[in-house]
Design goal:
hpI Integrase, Chain A; globular; mainly alpha; 365 residues; 15 helices; three-stranded antiparallel β-sheet
Length: 365
């Protein structure tokens, strides 16, 4: 073990907020690693960082780049501060897109000749998969903004190119019937039921749920720092989740563990939960992330404001919250609207009856 107590290529670093963090740096690849050094989660990030170095060396360092080309732009971007600040998972995803969509087919082409029509053609080739087309457009905007910053372009031709409309509602929002079916199949004390209560009770992504453990419990709350956004949250533990946790021993670092007693990765947990759903007889569209939407929908149905929902889910904008609350109980809201209208009509009719009674009394006199 190195003298600093960290794996190779890692060092302690104090950021501008005075927080002590572990920084991984090898060649031109650099990133921060979260968690306790040498823990399983930390070493997964370390492995991803090493993979990032290998991919970077293979993809953009295997050959000399010509100045002014897309290859040269990519190399410059991978050395930028913006790239360094990204999480290892984001880096790996962007490197795959860069390699497949840009470097291999167009790496030797000059950036200065890239215009709006070329960008439209690039993303148009993925029109059948709007999400992929939009991801490529987002990356092109980032890369070409960097090209402007370093003087390769005067303006960003990707700005103003329209995204493809995405008609899909994304992950299926679980119905209350589906939740009840899962609960009936898996009793309190089972790993599957614990997973359900964590997902529903905290409204967090699976990447955050798999990292939760007793060390995150503060009184009657769970402290969460979202992996995707780095947003800190303190979420009250509801009664169903409290019951599930009460049946859990305090022998592991994380609430959820594999059959071998090891923490789940986000991917392995997704596979595990998908198998649980299939065994419980639920449709294929029932997935872990859909419970995040169900939790947000429950909050909306309970009359919670958008700000209250954001305080639980950790979303930054109202637009993001609306994506998860579109499935709000339309029938219930419609019934409330009709009942309110009916009450108003009865009130007006009551006032009319009182007025007629007064007129009748005057005539009878």
């Amino acid at each position: 073990m190195p003298k600093n107590g960290l794996p190779d290529h890692c060092s302690w670093n104090v950021d501008r907020h005075g927080k002590r963090r572990v920084r991984f740096r090898k060649r031109v690849f650099s990133t921060y690693l979260a968690g306790i050094p040498w823990s399983e989660d930390f070493m997964r990030q370390y492995a991803a960082a090493l993979d990032g170095v290998k991919v970077q060396a293979t993809n953009v360092g295997a050959r000399r780049t010509k100045p002014g080309t897309i290859d040269a732009l990519v190399v410059s971007y991978l050395r930028s501060v913006d790239w360094t600040a990204l999480k290892p998972t984001t880096k790996a995803l962007r490197l795959r897109i860069i390699e497949r969509e840009l470097r291999i087919p167009h790496g030797d082409k000059p950036v200065r000749l890239l215009g709006r029509s070329h960008i439209k053609n690039l993303i148009g080739a993925k029109a059948n998969t709007p999400e992929a087309a939009n991801s490529l457009l987002k990356l092109l905007r980032i890369l070409l903004a960097h090209a402007v910053d370093i003087g390769m372009l005067d303006s960003n031709p990707a700005i103003g190119v329209k995204r493809y409309p995405v008609r899909s509602e994304g992950f299926h929002t679980w119905s209350e019937t589906e939740v009840a079916q899962f609960e009936a199949y898996y009793p309190i004390g089972s790993r599957a039921r614990l997973a359900l209560e964590l997902l529903l009770g905290t409204a967090q992504r699976r990447s955050d749920v798999v990292r939760m453990g007793w060390q995150h419990v503060q009184g009657d709350c769970i402290a969460v720092r979202q992996e995707k956004t780095n947003t800190p949250l303190l979420i009250p533990i509801n009664a169903p989740l409290a019951a599930a946790l009460a049946a859990l021993p305090r022998t592991n670092m994380t609430f959820l563990v594999t059959e071998a007693g090891k923490p789940f990765t986000s991917g392995s947990f997704g596979d595990f939960f998908r198998d649980c759903c299939r065994e419980a007889g639920l449709p294929k569209h029932c997935a872990a992330h859909g419970l995040r939407k169900t939790a947000a929908t429950r909050l909306a149905n309970a009359g919670c404001s958008a700000e209250m929902i954001k305080a639980i889910t950790g979303h930054k904008t109202l637009t993001e919250v609306s994506r998860y609350t579109r499935a709000v109980d339309q029938a219930r809201l419609a019934r409330l609207a009709v009942e309110r209208l009916q009450t108003d009509a009865e009130h007006k009719l009551s006032n009319l009856d009182t007025g007629l009674d007064k007129i009748a009394r005057k005539v009878l006199k």
